[in-house]
Design a protein that fits this description.
The chain is an alpha+beta fold and 250 residues long. The chain has seven helices and four strands. It has two domains: 17-79; 101-229, Alpha-Beta Plaits (2-Layer Sandwich), CATH 3.30.70.2830. Strands 1-2-4-3 form a four-stranded antiparallel beta sheet, with helices on one face. The longest helix has 62 residues, at 17-78.
């Protein structure tokens, strides 16, 4: 006869190892998740701070640019833009003088220049100082919104100096200028005798496009308002007279 096994346990036996294993695994997962969450929070915190610093830097640069803009507007308001525009127009007109037709001028001068007359200097000007000396140079351009240009004008005043062998040669030059298609209103403001020759200073209006074009331009100018008519060309000047060394008129 066998003896029955004696159970001395206070409670029935239960296998809790799987539960412990699951609990440890859950604790490990929770710890990892907490570490990840802490890392993300740390990074986001410093990211927000960096963004704030960037925004502050942008705000500071914006304030600086606004100050520069205000300074530029104040400087612009203090400028005399009208006068500067007129000065720019004057400089543009001077630059257009480079297009002056020198070749055509020399050809036309060769047609009227006698053999016994030699030119020493030649200076073209857009305005005629004989009409109104105050209307030449920068002052005229600053008073007018349409400055004239030597290269584009149909009337160019030429100031020249030269030497003539005798009175007949100088008179011949004046006659040829009066009869030329390309020149008008010659004047002889001064002359001097030196060792048998005659040094002279001569002014004449040069017509690069001819007399017909100059007349058409003068007619169009007369049809404009009174402000434009004031700039129309004057009537032809009387022919200058010269006296020879003996006192006779030439």
């Amino acid at each position: 006869m066998t003896q029955a096994a004696v159970n001395l346990a206070s409670r029935p036996f239960a296998n809790t190892r799987p539960l412990r294993r699951v609990a440890v695994a859950l604790w490990l997962v929770g710890t990892v998740l907490a570490a990840v969450a802490g890392t993300l929070y740390w990074r986001s915190f410093f990211g927000i701070e960096g963004g704030r610093e960037k925004i502050a830097a942008v705000d500071r640069s914006l304030v600086v640019e606004q100050r520069r803009l205000a300074a530029a507007e104040a400087e612009l308001a203090s400028m005399d833009l009208q006068r500067q525009n007129l000065e720019a127009a004057y400089l543009e007109a001077r630059l257009r003088e480079r297009t002056f037709p020198w070749s055509a001028l020399f050809e036309h001068l060769a047609q009227v220049l006698p053999r016994k007359v030699r030119l020493v200097s030649l200076s073209p000007q857009a305005g005629d100082p004989r009409r109104d000396p105050a209307n030449s140079g920068v002052a005229a351009v600053l008073r007018s919104r349409r400055p004239t240009s030597v290269g584009s004008s149909s009337r160019v005043y030429l100031q020249m100096t030269g030497v003539a062998a005798n009175d007949e040669a100088l008179t011949d030059l004046l006659d040829r200028l009066f009869g030329s298609e390309w020149f008008t209103n010659p004047s002889l403001p001064s002359e001097r005798r030196d060792e048998g020759q005659i040094g002279f200073s001569l002014g004449v209006t040069y017509l690069p496009k001819g007399r017909a074009a100059a007349r058409a331009e003068a007619l169009a100018a007369r049809r404009e308002p009174s402000t434009s008519r004031a700039a129309a060309s004057p009537p032809p000047a009387p022919r200058p007279t010269r006296r020879s060394s003996s006192g006779d008129e030439l």
